[in-house]
Amino acid sequence: MKNYDQITEEIRKIAKKILNDKTVDKVIGFGLGTINQEITPLFISKAEGAKKLVFNKNSHMSLAKYLLNYKNEDVAIVAKPCDSRAINTYLSEKIINRNDIKVIGIQGCPGIEGNTACLECEVRNAVISDYDVGEKISKKKTNQLKEEKDFDSLSPEERFKYFRNEFERCTRCYACREACYVCYCKECFTESNQPEWLNKSVSLNENFTYHLMRAMHMAGRCVNCGACELACPEGIDVRALAAKMYNTATEIFDYKVGMDQKQKTLLAEYDVHDSEKGFME
Amino acid sequence: MMIKKADQESILKLLNNLKNDYNIAAPVLLKKGKKEIVEYVFIDDLNDIYLDRQPDSSPKNIVFPQNSAIGKDYSGDKLYDPEKKTILWGVRSCDIEAIKTIDQVFIEDEMYTDQSYKANRDKTIIVGLSCEEREKNCFCDALGFNPIESDYAPIYLFIKEDQYYIKIKEKEYESLFSSLFDGDQTELNELLKLREKDFNSSEFEIDIPIPLPEKDIFEAEIWDEMSEKCLSCGVCTYYCPTCYCFNFFWDGNDHDSTRYKNWDSCMFTTYSAHASGHNPRDSKDKRYRNRIMHKFSYHPFNYEGLGCVGCGRCISRCPVNLDIREALKLTEKYLQTKGGAKKDG
């Protein structure tokens, strides 16, 4: 497995080359932010700027969403394994064109500090890539979540208590939604006023409605990248519900989102042999 | 003016007595998931007061809560007694100036006074806290504010190790501190002089005309570049001590409902959406432009002072590290190269 500095070097080399030979007009990657060691999304359009690209332990943002700002433009994007699955999902949902994008895929991702999602990562290698950086490593199947927080073994009251404690401090700044690649709807249910699914008050009721409804939209689409949790300014365990959806999709349908660009999303495909666990029995 | 001097223990004893007649709101270190966050809350145990660093959230939630029922007292907290006044303890210069900014809009505006905000503010006594050193991302002095003392607080704390010097500028508050020993004015002046000398000035410097000349930069091509990485979440505005935009909504059923006022954010896509479906700020560059222009052009134009106090919270709490200082630098560069209006011009 290559380290952050080696991967950084490789990213810079590739970015410089593809900007120089005009393969792409822009490279979306990570750069150093203004806060010590903090990382910020970087958009490079000149080959000289490639040296500003960085990949370090804090590169937690999911850059895939920025692709939506450059539809029909030739862009390259630095993708961690989780982001590569997000890109595949965009391709399968046909909201971006394969021909427009070049993926600089991180193989053997060393992980992101403080992101518990990395401990559960099932791919470790970018699943779509035009230019590989790093070095492929063997998949390691882990399921840390079940060991860490086994919600299934908790009583409904205990679960409610846990999530009440978390969602109580939500200010509904929607950083989790905006950081999430799944949330690209032009109008989110939170903003709809006809019907008004939830009002603007920041109360436990409304906060629960927001998080539960958002979780429902995550089934079969969440790639379990942890960007939501790391974006939250209040340190809320935002990922827990989405991860539950992710694991449920695996458990019932043996479905893993974003492994291939041609793969249909979970709810876009129906098979008569699909398990109907919890629905019709 | 009166100067008092006390040690930590006597201060806690004093606050403990004041607690009987006042609500006390102060910065407290809270464990939130994996994060440790300092924010202003109403407190009971005075040992919880945490003044070691700039709070991560501003005291805006105390003077202007995120949700408040119109025509009813602020009642979001068990420890808040609406019959009592509130002592807002240990507020740094940036946050005091921010409260001043909100006061300008909700109280001092000639056209309109927000009665519920005013009622809440009339009950709030701000006790300032002098900054000892620069925090990670703040730049209040680059905008012309004084981190060591703001004139807008009637009471000010200067802490040196375990010693508190308390400056009481308004007579009506002198009785609150009568149990403490008198302090020496020259001693405090010495401390202030030393503090001013030692305070490392901001690395960030900015030279832009205030108010920013709207006609010169409104259509400039800088906004796209500035906001390229913006996620359009509400973090910068919610944690901003001066952002005061709000919205209304009804809550209840057919028989009983309450009108609420709650924070809004100009970063949200629906912020300026019209009923017709038209939205004059339909993209994030236009929304980010509004944020910068409101703080550095519209507010200074309509009121005296700035709409930004340089606390740096929008920088440290932004999920993508979008830095307002970089935005200002870009504006400065644009105005200089395009030969825009000169300072005070």
Radius of gyration of chain B: 21 Å
In the sheet with the most strands of chain A, the strands line up as 2-1-3-4-5
The domain tally of chain B reads 2
Shape summary of chain B: globular
Series of H and E elements of chain B: EHEEHEEHHEEEEHHHHEEHHH
User: Uncertain spans of chain B, ≥5 residues at pLDDT below 50?
Assistant: 341-345
Q: What count of domains describes the coordinates of chain A? A: 2
- Quaternary status: heterodimer
Taking the alpha carbons of the first and last residues of chain B, their distance comes to 38 Å
Largest beta-sheet characterization of chain B:
8 strands, mixed
The helix tally of chain A amounts to 8
Helix content of chain B: 25-40%
Specify the number of helices of chain B. Answer: 11
Low-confidence stretches of chain A are none
> Would you count the extended β strands of chain B for me?
11
In what range is the share of β-strand residues of chain A? 5-15%
Task: Describe the SSE topology.
The complex is a heterodimer of chains A (281) and B (345).
Chain A: H1 4-20, E1 26-32, E2 39-44, E3 75-79, H2 81-92, E4 101-107, E5 131-134, H3 144-148, H4 156-167, H5 175-179, H6 204-216, H7 227-231, H8 239-253
Parallel strand pairs in A: 1-3, 3-4, 4-5
Antiparallel strand pairs in A: 1-2
Chain B: E1 2-7, H1 8-18, E2 22-32, E3 35-42, H2 60-63, E4 67-69, E5 85-92, H3 93-106, H4 115-122, E6 124-129, E7 155-160, E8 163-168, E9 181-182, H5 185-198, H6 214-217, H7 222-227, H8 235-238, E10 246-252, E11 257-263, H9 284-302, H10 313-317, H11 324-337
Parallel strand pairs in B: 2-5, 5-6, 6-7
Antiparallel strand pairs in B: 1-8, 1-9, 2-3, 4-11, 7-8, 10-11
